[in-house]
Amino acid sequence: MLKHITIQNYALIKHLELEPSPSLNVITGETGAGKSIMLGAIGLLMGNRADTKVLWDEEQKCIIEGSFAIKEYKLKSVFKAEDLDYDEITVIRREISPGGKSRAFINDTPVTLEVMKRIGNLLMDIHSQHETLQLGQQSFQLRLIDAYAANHTLREQYATDWQAYVKARKDFENLSAEADTLRQEADYVRFQLDELNQAHLEEGEQETLESEVKVMDHTSEIKSSFNLILDAVTLSDFAARVKLSEARAALSSVSSYSPAYAALLQRLESVLIELDDIMSEIESEEEKIEFDPQHAEFAKERLSTIYKLLKKHKAEDLKTLLAIQESLSQKDALTSNLDESLERAKQDFEAALKVVTATAKKLTDSRTKVFIPLCKQLTALLQELGIPNATLQIDMQPAELSAQGADRIDILFSANKGVAPRPLAQVASGGEFSRLMFSIKYVMAEKTAMPTLILDEIDTGISGEVAMKLGTLMKTMATRHQLIAISHLPQIAAKGDAHYFVYKDNTSSKTISAIKVLSAEDRVQEIAKMIGGAKPSKVALENAQELLGR
């Protein structure tokens, strides 16, 4: 449900804010006042493209922002799939800069227009008589039938079974396709694996061996350096350690005269402790150094083996080589048990196919049961809306398994007596299509949580009693779902729980479109004008009051 919308710097709209009623909202106004501009702005929240031509002030950016209450829509999984933060009050925002750059946000997270379109179309449904309707699409017709049959749980089960089937089929097909190649490569894979296994490689081994070889190649140089250090620091008569000890004694004799001297003494003692520790480690390392010809030869041969294997397998390091060994091991295990693996994959595939086929059959049976009552209800609604000879049929044919089931659905329609029903796109005129779509939305609203439904002049081509019935149906539908209806008919306007009036404001140097909520008295005047023109008569005012039930 749309809680709040802000439109800023868009076309003729400088700044507009709207807090729609949760029920039936009616928007009226003169032609060209800006009603279609509002729809264009809302369309931006549904991922429609725009350019800088939409800017009211070309030096300022355009901002369209809508807040939606989405608790009833069950969209947590959709938000998770798009890696978006879910919030029961979700905010969608679109910005268009003077330079033409467009940015989209959902709950303050930047998103692509495709993501905005997917989410926006789940939150708002704009129905215009001029748009190419989706009624002829297979997916829409199946969604209608599933909504009427209350197949939500069954569709979720089918989706789970379908995904399991697709995975099992893919696994079996991939393994089957790889089988011949795996068999041909089996001996070569085994040879490479044996060579690597016999090498007994260990991670980190190369670095250790390289370090050992460097030390053994420079044994004399290292021992000479260490002995020089030990002599200079601790062993000779003039060793640094002796002089530092003398310095400590001198500083100790004066340390009691000042806290600063005491601190310096403490630091010098720390230096001596650290120096003693360093010398101890150097002495220990010097004692360890002993050239071992046999170990040196072993280390060099071992490194040679590692380098050859790295070059052969085009590996950058030992870690990569071990990963190749693991991959070869997996291939070898798969090849060794290829027939068993193929049979197991085939059994999994056939089992998954059996499960998804059974669920598809349940879905087909559930759908078939509602064909007659659905057609009956839609026909009755169409007759109420001025199509007395309306006829609807649903034709279903078996189809290959798909994400939507195993059914091919065609809704057939005829608006005229003696004319056989045909597929919707072939037979319905614009006005008939609009009324049929409204009837379908009315039926779906009884069965499911629909998004905010925006009806753009769906009442075009009707009047009188039919208009009254359409208004009554909208009012009933709005008890369960939020409706925003743009209308030129007083019969529709009078049914609104909230009535908004769009008008042009020419008081400043540049025309702007504005909107205001009409008070009870303003509604009488506006509906009377819709009946009798700019200067309504007393009769028109009385008719307006009658329509409003006063």
From TrEMBL:
Domain RecF/RecN/SMC N-terminal residues, every copy: 1-506
Keywords: ATP-binding, DNA damage, DNA repair, Nucleotide-binding
The keyword DNA damage belongs to this UniProt entry's keyword annotation: yes
Top-level taxon: Bacteria
One GO MF term: ATP binding
Alphabetical GO biological process terms: DNA recombination; DNA repair; SOS response
Protein name: DNA repair protein RecN
